[in-house]
Amino acid sequence: MDAITVEALSKRYGDTLAVDDISFAVAPGRTIGLLGGNGAGKTTTIAMLLGLLIPSSGRITVLGHDMATDRFAALARMNFSSPYVALPHRISVFENLMVYCHLYDVPDAKRRIAELASQLNLHDLLRRPVGDLSAGQKTRVALAKSLINRPDVLLLDEPTASLDPDTGDMVRSWLERYRAESGCAILLASHNMAEVERLCDEVLMLKQGRIVDRGSPADLLARYGRDTLEAVFLDIARNTGTQATGATA
Amino acid sequence: MRPALRRIWGMMYRHLSLYRRSWPRLLELAYWPTLQMCIWGFTASFFAGRMANAGTPGAGAVTLGMLLGAVLLWEVALRSQMGVAISFLEEIWSRNLGHVFVSPLRPWELVAALLAMSVIRMLAGVLPAVLLAWLLYAFNLFDLGAPLVVLAVNLMVMGWWVSLGIVSLILRHGAGAEALAWSVLFGITPFAAVFYPVSVLPPVLQPVALALPAAHVFEGMRAILAGSGFPWESLVAATGLNLLWLGAATLLFARQFRAARIRGALMSIGE
Question: To probe the interface with B, which of A44, A78, A95, A99 has the most B CB atoms within 10 Å?
C-alpha cells in the first residue's frame, strides 16, 4: 500500500486554480520531489496533504486514512518541516521539542530529545531560546521537531534552506539514513536541484498548478537532454528545450 | 496520561514555559486588576466616607462592598476573556499555528488548553487584587460565601464565550482583529450592569443588559451584599444565558475554523 495517494486533487481560490487535477502516489521508503517556480502549487499541495487546507475536489489518503474524514489518525504518524513556519521563539529548543513530544504523544520524551540532539548536533542549543539561534540552527531544530515522532510520512519544504554546505550535506545524509532505516515516505519541495537529484526517486514538475512532467531525475535529464535538473527546471519554466512544450503528466 | 490530555498539557506547557522565562509577563497579569482595585477602592472609600458623614454609615459600607465586589468579579470575566484570546494570539505572533494544526491536536483540545490557561492567568491576575482589597479596604470577597463560586464561574464562562467569538473573528479577519482581544469586554461594561442595577439603564438598553449573563450575576451579587439572600433567579438566568451564548460561540468557532481551512488562512494568519 502506498503511504500517500493523491487522486484528481484540485484547489480553487475564487477564479484562481492553484492546484489543477493532480494525481500521484508515494510508496514507503521512497522520496518524491515537488519542483516548480513560485506559485506553481507546491505549498498548496503540501498544505492539503497536511489537512491545513480543504481541497476543492479530489481525494488524499495518507497511511490508509482519508484526510477528509480521518486526518488525525494520519497526522499522528506524519510530520512536517518548513522554514516558513516558525517555532515559538521565546522558549528554549528543549521546551519546544518537549511541547511536540506531548502533542505527538512521544514515549520517553527526554530520551527522544537527547537522541535527536545527538544526531543533529543540537546539544549546545537545547537551553537557548529559539529566537536567539541563527537561521541554520533554526532549520536544524525544525528538522528535529519534524522527526520527533519517528514519522512514517515526512513532508519537507526546503529542509536545508539556510544551512551551510557541510551541515546541509550532514542533514541530507541523515535523511537518507532515516528513510532507509524507517521506510519513511518523504515528499520534498525544494529549490535546491542538487538536493532533489540526490534524495528523490521521482520528481513531479509543477507549473501553474498542474503536473507538467514527472520521472526519476535520470529520466528527466535524459528526456530533456540536459546535464542538470536546474536546466530541466528552466526548460519547463520558460517553455524551452526539446520536451517542455509537449510534455504532459 | 491519555493522549488527548497529554496534548492539552503540551499546549499548556508551551504557554507556562513562556511565563517561566518572563517576569514582565507575570507582572502584567496582575498589573491591571491591581490598578483597577486601587482606583475604585479609593473612590469607593471616599464616597463611603461622605455617606458616613451624612449619617448613613451602614449604606456607605454596603456601597463600598458593592463597588469593590463588582471590580473584582468583573476582572474575573475580563482576565478569563483575555486569557483565551491572548494565548491564541501568542500562537499567531510566533507564527506557530502551522505546526500546531498539523499535529494530532484537535481543535477542541486547543480550546481546552486555552481555557485552562485562562483560568491560570485569571487567578494570577485577580488573587493579588483580592488580597489588596482585604489589606487596604478590609473588604473580603470571600465573605460572599458559597455563591461566590457560582458568580465567578458564570463570569469566567462569559469571558470564555466572548473570547471564542474574538478568536473566530481573528480566524476570519487575521491578526488585524487582534485589538478586539483587549477592547470587546470593556465595550460591554456599560451594558453589563457591573457597577449599577439594570434599572438605572434607559429602558431601551435594559433588554440588552438582560441578555448578558453578567447583568444577572451582578444583580445577584448586590442582592447578597444587601442581605437579601441567595438570588436563585439571577443565577439560573445567568447560567442559562451562558449556556446559550457558549453554544453559539462554539458553533461560530467551528464554522470559522472550517472556513479558515478552506481559505488556507491557518498557514498565513500571522502574516
Answer: A99
